[in-house]
Every structure is written in C-alpha cells, then in structure tokens.
C-alpha cells in the first residue's frame, strides 16, 4: 500500500526560523497547509508568517516532542541540526530530508568522501585533526589550498585560504592556522582554479521522481552570495546536463526527499574541455534558488513542500528567457523604494530588524522575457 498523502489542512513543521523557513511557510500556505516554526530566537523572521511557533533550544527534548506531535511532516531550513534532534523528530513523524542525508551532508569530510565515492569529481582533500596532520596534508596536496572546519561553516566562515605567498620569511605555521579555526576538526582541500561557480537546485520525492532547475551561475562578494544568473553564462548544454546528472546521482544515493542544492565549480581541463567539480551539498532550499519564485513555473519552496508532502513535483521550466537574482545585504535593502519603482523587478524583504553588515535582508529578481 502506498503511503497516505499529506493533504491540504495538514501542518508542516519547520526547524529554523530564518528567511528560508519563512519562504517555505509562505509556499505551504499557498497550498492550504499550515506551518509550525521551531526556532530558539524569538525574533525569527519566519514567525511572522506562520500560525504556530515554538521558541526553544534545538536540544530541548520536551519542546521537540511537543512540537513534533503537533505537526504532520517535519523539514528544516538549515543543516546544523544536532543528530539527536533529528532522531527525536524522525521517531514520531516523517522527517524530510532524512536524518541520514543530514548526517552525510553536515560534515564536510563525510560529504566529500560520499561524493568522491560516487565517482563524482571533487577537489583533492584530506582530514586534518591537528597541526601535524595539517603539515602532512599540505605536503600531500600542495598550495594553494583551503582549510575548512568540518562542521558549522557557512558563507566562508570557518575557512582559511592557504597561499605560499602569504607566509613570508617565517614560512607556513600549521599550529597558527589550526588555532585560527579554534583547533576544530578540519579538512584541507586543494584550491580549484574555477572559471565560475554554479549550482544545481533540484528536487526528489519519495517515489524517486527527480526534477532539476537549469543550473545557475553564482557570484559571491566577501564570501556571501551576491548575484545568481540563469541560464549560467558560459555553460554549454553538455556541461549543464552533466551538472544535472551529478545532482541526480547525489539525490538518488542519499535517497533524498525534498529540495537540495549542489554547489559546483566550473573548470576547464588541460585539453580545454569544460567540466564541473562538486564543492558542497546543501540539504535544503538554497539562496541560489530564490530566483525560482518568479523565474520558474514552480518555486523551489513550492517544490520542496510538494516533495515532502508526497505530492507530484511541479515544472521547473523558466518563465522567461533569463533570470537574475540579487541579494540585498545589509543597508542595500534601504533602497527598497527605488527597487519597487523598477519595472519588472520583484522585491522580497525578510522582515529582519537591524540591517547589520553582511546580513541577508532581502533579494530582488528580474525576469527577462521577450526575444
Ligand atoms: P564553501 O563554504 O565550501 O561553499 O566555500 C565558500 C567559497 O570559498 C566558495 O564559494 C568558493 O568561492 C571558495 N572555495 C571553497 N573551496 C574552494 C576550493 N577548494 N577551491 C577554490 N575555491 C574554493
């Protein structure tokens, strides 16, 4: 017997109350679903748009228990959820993506080993636990390289670029490098000389149906996504197809349910052939998929809700010829009246209080139609 569908009127539980949770809740509402947001921060932007909220720590077993019993399906908007929390949730209601997909992708070492094990290109990498291990890894991989904490990294946090030319007379000091990342378990990755950064946002449902949006090109400023463009300029149809088939292989191997994003580097081999190298997997809706709200037939948030509810996936087709998404970081959101006045520009503000530097306050999307 096939599993019962989650019907309109049911409640989607969302762990995390940031802008991603907020946009998932809005998409759920479009389909007549209710949302219950769980987040420790009482000022969470997602609370504004959800009928129910729980303000509690992510390891508060009693609060998690009460939360999970009040919902029909659980999802999350960020991957740094303690594994014990995922277990408590999954013991009572369907958790999508699964606790095991979460465990694989929330640690850079298990994630890279998993992707490499599928025969998919990744940067050369080594586990690094201490200064001696880092010195050895640098000998094996060479420089330049990127040292990253295995867990809790985002927007370039928990990362250190290692370049020979930065070390001066004294040379490379592995102990200082480890100390700057608080001596946490790390991985060292060889630097990938990429032409562009691209991502594939895709969805898979429990029946194994898979649907991917066109790969997008992502430009970062100060390690934070600044601009996404679709279709990705400079990506041939063959490379785009290769990128999508990699995302599919990853989703299938994880037995993934929901939307995921696979971040990749676009590279060119010595023979001049283009290819992609996987950087990381985000087991959730992703900033590089925000353009889909107006730029695709089905937004990534609606697609995620469909996938986790066991509903048929929607069309990922573009609604125009090309799409551009710009993040509004810090005081860039102060420009909202100018953006509102711009024909064809779609403004999204996340309802956050202080516009601190580096904080994602909103985004805007422009869809180019016509010839
Ligand atoms: P991440 O947190 O892994 O997404 O890394 C943040 C950014 O650092 C990426 O978007 C790249 O711009 C850069 N980066 C990370 N890893 C590498 C690498 N192995 N080679 C070159 N650039 C990298």
Automatic annotation (TrEMBL):
Enzymatic class: ligase
Tree of life domain: Bacteria
The species this protein was found in: Methylobacterium indicum
Sorted UniProt keywords: ATP-binding, Ligase, Lyase, Nucleotide-binding, Purine biosynthesis
EC number, as in UniProt: 6.3.4.18
Known partners and oligomeric status: Homodimer.
InterPro entries per record: ATP-grasp, ATP-grasp_carboxylate-amine, ATP_grasp_subdomain_1, PreATP-grasp_dom_sf, PurK, PurK_C, PurT/PurK_preATP-grasp, Rudment_hybrid_motif
Protein role: Catalyzes the ATP-dependent conversion of 5-aminoimidazole ribonucleotide (AIR) and HCO(3)(-) to N5-carboxyaminoimidazole ribonucleotide (N5-CAIR).
UniProt xrefs under Gene3D superfamilies: 3.40.50.20, ATP-grasp fold, A domain, ATP-grasp fold, B domain
Stated family: Belongs to the PurK/PurT family.
The protein's name: N5-carboxyaminoimidazole ribonucleotide synthase
Domain (ATP-grasp) ranges: 112-309
Family matches, as Pfam families: ATP-grasp (PF02222), PurK_C (PF17769), RS_preATP-grasp-like (PF22660)
Pathway noted in the entry: Purine metabolism; IMP biosynthesis via de novo pathway; 5-amino-1-(5-phospho-D-ribosyl)imidazole-4-carboxylate from 5-amino-1-(5-phospho-D-ribosyl)imidazole (N5-CAIR route): step 1/2
Catalysed reaction equations from the record: 5-amino-1-(5-phospho-beta-D-ribosyl)imidazole + hydrogencarbonate + ATP = 5-carboxyamino-1-(5-phospho-D-ribosyl)imidazole + ADP + phosphate + 2 H(+)
MF-aspect GO terms: phosphoribosylaminoimidazole carboxylase activity
Positions with a binding annotation for ATP: 108, 148, 153-159, 189-192, 197, 220, 279-280
């Amino acid at each position: 017997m096939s599993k019962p569908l989650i019907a309109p009127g049911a409640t989607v539980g969302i762990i995390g109350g940031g802008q991603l949770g907020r946009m998932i809740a809005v998409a759920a509402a479009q389909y007549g679903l209710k949302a219950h947001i769980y987040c420790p921060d009482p000022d969470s932007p997602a609370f504004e748009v959800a009928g129910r909220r729980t303000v509690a720590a992510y390891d508060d077993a009693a609060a998690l228990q009460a939360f999970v019993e009040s919902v029909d399906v659980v999802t999350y908007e960020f991957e740094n959820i303690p594994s014990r929390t995922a277990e408590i949730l999954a013991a009572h209601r369907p958790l999508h993506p699964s606790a095991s997909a979460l465990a694989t992708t929330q640690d850079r070492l298990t994630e890279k080993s998993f992707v490499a094990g599928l025969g998919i290109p990744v940067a050369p990498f080594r586990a690094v636990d201490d200064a001696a291990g880092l010195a050895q890894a640098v000998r094996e991989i060479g420089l330049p390289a990127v040292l990253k904490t295995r867990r809790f990294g985002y927007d370039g946090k928990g990362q250190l670029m290692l370049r020979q030319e930065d070390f001066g007379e004294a040379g490379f000091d592995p102990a200082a490098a480890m100390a700057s990342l608080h001596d946490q378990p790390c991985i060292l990755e060889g630097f990938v000389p990429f032409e562009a950064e691209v991502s594939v946002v895709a969805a898979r449902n429990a029946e194994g149906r898979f649907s991917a949006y066109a790969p997008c090109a992502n430009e970062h400023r100060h390690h934070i996504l600044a601009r996404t463009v679709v279709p990705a300029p400079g990506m041939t149809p063959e490379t785009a197809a290769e990128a999508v088939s990699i995302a599919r292989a990853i989703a299938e191997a994880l037995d993934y349910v929901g939307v995921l994003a696979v971040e990749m580097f676009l590279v060119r081999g010595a023979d001049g052939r283009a290819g992609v190298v996987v950087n990381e997997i985000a087991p959730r809706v992703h900033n590089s998929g925000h353009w889909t709200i107006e730029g695709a037939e089905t937004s990534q948030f609606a697609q995620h809700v469909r996938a986790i509810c066991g509903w048929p996936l929607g069309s990922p087709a573009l609604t125009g010829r090309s799409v551009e998404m710009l993040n509004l970081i810090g005081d860039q959101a102060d420009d909202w009246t100018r953006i509102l006045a711009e024909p064809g520009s779609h403004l999204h503000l996340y309802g956050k209080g202080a516009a601190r530097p580096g904080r994602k306050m909103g985004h805007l999307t422009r869809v180019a139609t016509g010839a």
